[in-house]
Every structure is written in C-alpha cells, then in structure tokens.
Design a protein that fits this description.
This protein is α/β, with parallel strands linked by helices and about 450 residues long. The protein has 16 helices and 22 strands.
Length: about 450
C-alpha cells in the first residue's frame, strides 16, 4: 500500500481522536509478532486471542501506531487511535486503499471451488500479468482487507476470494474490494444454517455485484439453472461458463480419468492434471475469465497443464502403495458427491479398494439429517465397500449407506475423530485408496496425520 499519514489514517477509520501527525504508515498487521517497522497494528479480537493484549508488543516491534476499540495502557509517546470496532476500521482502510490503487480486481465466490479457482487464475494469468493472490483462504472480513494491504502497489491484478456464512457478508466484502471482474463458481447446499435455502445462498452470492465497478464483467456457472434464472429475474448483466451448450463459454467433450481429465476449449485439447469433475468446472470458470482477458486457448492449455492441487482439496498423496485423497478442508453435499465420484474413478483406474473416511457436513441447519441421509444413498450408489465415520449426523449417512447397499458394505462408527484415528490400522490395507473428507470444524486432518504415521514408512 502507498504511504499514508497517521492523520489521514485516523480520518479514514473515523477515530475518536485525530492526531496532527505527518508520520506515515505503509503496512498493516493484526499480528504483533510480524508487524513491520513503521506499520499500523490493528488490535482485533479473535476466538482465542485479543489483540489488545499485544499492543505494547507491537510498539516494541516497531509499530508507528495502533488501532484499538478499548482503552489500553501504553507509554505517553505512543499513538493510539480509538474506534468503535477495529474490524470495521480495517475494512474502511482497505476500501480507501483499494480506491487509491491502479490495479484491477478479480473477485471469486461460490459454494465451493473458490480457492482452487483463485489458484488457477493466478497460475495462468501470471504468465501475462503481474498478479497477486493471498496464499491462504483469506476470504472474510479480515482476510479480504489483508489481501488488499499485502498486494504490491505496482501489481496489475489482485485475485481475491470472498466467502460468507451469513447474509450481507459478500456485499460488504464486494464494496471493500470493488471488483472489475466478479465470478460465481457454483451453487450448492452450503451454510444452510445461515441462509435457510438455496435461494438464500444464491441471493448472497450474487451480491458480489454490489461493488462491481462500472463496466465490470460478471461471470456465473451456466450449468446451475436456478442461478441463471435468479440472475435473469434480477436483471443482471452476466456471462455464463460451464459444460452445457447454453453456456457462453463452454468446456466440451470431458473425459474423467480419476486423477486427471481431458477436455476441449475452442477446439483445443486440454490435459488437466487435477482430479474430479468439480475441478473441470473450476477450470471452466478460470477459462472464462482468462479468455476475457486475452489469453488464448493454447496458452491456457499449456499453462494449466502444470497446475498443482491446493492443499486439502482433492490432494492425492502416495504413502507407499497406499493412496490417500486429502479433501478434508471442507464438505457440503455438492463437494461430497464430487469427491465420491473421484474416489470411485481413481479406484478403478488404479485397481484399488476404495475406502471412505468421513465426518459430518457442518452448518446445514434443519436440513442436516436429510442431507446426510442423501449422502448415505450416494455412498451406496458408488458401491464403496468400507466406510469409517463418527457418531452424529455422519453416522446417519453411514447407516443409510448400509441400508441401501447390495454389495456387502462394511460400516464402522466411532466415538470421535481421535477414536477413529486410533483404530485406522485395524481396517486399512496397504493397497487401499482412501478418501478423507469432512467439514473444517471436524479437524479430519488428524486422520491424514495418522495415515502418514502408520503407512508413510512402508
């Protein structure tokens, strides 16, 4: 970010006291350990820590000033800016910095696929433009502002993801980051606890257009009829991408091979090294934006051939002869279906026994039991012979799979994740292929760690 006087900073965030200081700040941090000399420290209250407890440490490490929402005891010569809410102040500053910058912004939202699509766009567009994308899933009211602050002043594009679990969050983030290009990857039941229905989810996602700059472009998944119909009803100007003929930008002749796929864009064959049909849909989203920005089909095909999977998202790990699909970053009905299809295809491709180790899909509200029962039917459909899970909603899925199987499924339900991890060795065979998937809150990365410990040395 460009240098900003502390006086101007105070005005932008509406601090209660406006110091007459020409001293400038050129960086922002919410972590007192990583504050740069001359930066501003925002004291943010988190689930585990309160930034107000670390204001003095931030000053010791070189902070020029600190933004707080309650009184803190500091030396008389330190500059403290008091605001009503430090997170809102963080957003106000990010909005100011964005307006004062020359780069363009590509903003990505959707029920699933945000981080992977962001990664694809950054990978491909960096061959032509100077791009910046946050290395992590910085997609909330803290992460999006940090993305703005961390972007180099001379970059040409910021590629950001916008997430939400309650109404109004996407609109708020969109107005902060003011995208030139807005994109919705897909829509499926996700965070129903906060939105209540698919229509509620769609309404939230299309609010990404709230901050869209004049002349900006809006891309949506044309395979999702309910999304297209809602955008038409809302009289939005949009471009569709997808796999069906009605899409403006289409991916054709898709062949799935388990750990990879092949498809065509504008007559050019694309050999795509990521697993799953959902990743093909993510690639279609990335292609729509890249094509709009002047990337040829040939350039796209050559570049995407070297894309790597994002960690914990259909990430294929080899542990000797054991194959693990690490997809435990998050889970909802749509991503579960895609992951099960990928497991089935990859098991056939490699000639291995498929095993599904899973936990609950979170934030589904009143629909949770029904959607977990539906998941059980999909497990039976893909004829997964061994299913390991934990008590609760995920047990509903396992029991429904057992009820609907016609192939002698084996179902094991454990007390909790730790219990499941402790008993893995009793059921897993060295030549299996294992899909590990659950919502982030279930912490199923513990299963991955245990598999590495048990099978990583074989």
């Amino acid at each position: 970010m460009k240098p900003l006087s502390i006086k101007k900073l105070a005005e932008v965030i509406k601090a209660q006291f406006i110091p007459d200081s020409t001293k400038t700040i050129s960086s922002v941090s919410i972590d007192s350990r990583t504050i740069r000399r001359g930066g501003v420290f925002f004291a943010v209250r988190g689930a585990n820590h309160d930034g107000h407890d670390f204001v003095n440490q931030a000053f010791e490490n070189g902070a020029a000033c600190a933004v707080v929402q309650k009184e803190v005891a500091v030396a008389a010569d330190k500059i403290i800016l008091l605001v009503g809410d430090t997170i809102e102040a963080l957003g106000s500053l990010a909005q100011f910095v964005r307006k004062d910058s020359a780069y363009k912004v590509i903003a990505v939202t959707g029920s699933v696929g945000k981080t992977t699509t962001k990664s694809m766009l950054n990978h491909i567009l960096s061959g032509k433009f100077d791009c910046f994308a946050a290395p992590k899933s910085y997609n909330n009211n803290i992460g999006v502002p940090l993305t703005v602050f961390d972007a180099p002043d001379d970059c040409e594009f910021i590629i950001a993801e916008l997430g939400s679990n309650h109404p109004g969050e996407i609109e708020y983030l969109s107005r902060i980051i003011a995208p030139d290009i807005a994109l919705i990857t897909t829509i499926c039941p996700s965070h129903l606890e906060g939105f209540g229905s698919i229509e509620g989810i769609i309404k939230e996602k299309i609010s990404i257009t709230a901050g869209l700059r004049r002349g900006g472009r809006f891309f949506i998944n044309g395979d999702k009829k309910e999304l297209v119909d809602y955008c038409k009803k809302s009289r939005l100007d949009f471009t569709t991408f997808g796999t069906t003929e009605n899409c403006n930008v289409q991916v054709k002749d898709i062949e799935l091979f388990g750990d990879r796929s092949r498809f065509f864009i504008d007559g050019v064959a694309v050999d795509f090294p990521l697993a799953g049909r959902a990743n093909v849909e993510n690639a279609a989203a990335a292609w729509a934006v890249c094509k709009h920005l002047g990337i040829s089909a040939g350039q796209f095909a050559r570049s995407i051939a070297s894309i790597k999977p994002v960690g914990m998202r259909l990430e294929v790990i080899e542990l000797g002869s054991l194959l693990v699909i690490n997809d435990c970053y998050n889970a909802n009905p749509g991503s579960m279906e895609n992951a099960l299809q990928t497991l089935s295809l990859l098991a056939k491709q490699r000639g291995k026994r498929p095993v599904f180790v899973f936990g609950r899909m979170g934030e589904l509200g009143a629909e949770s039991e029904k959607l977990h029962a539906d998941l059980g039917r999909r497990i039976a459909h893909y004829k997964i012979p061994l299913v390991l899970t934990t008590k609760g909603d995920s047990a509903v899925a396992a029991q429904m799979a057992d009820k609907n199987d016609d192939f002698n499924i084996s179902v094991k339900i454990f007390e909790n994740v730790a219990d499941l991890a402790d008993n893995l060795h009793k059921f897993i065979q060295p030549d299996d292929i294992i899909l590990v998937k659950a919502s982030r809150s279930e912490r199923f990365e513990a299963i991955i760690d245990r598999l590495k410990a048990v099978f990583g040395t074989i």
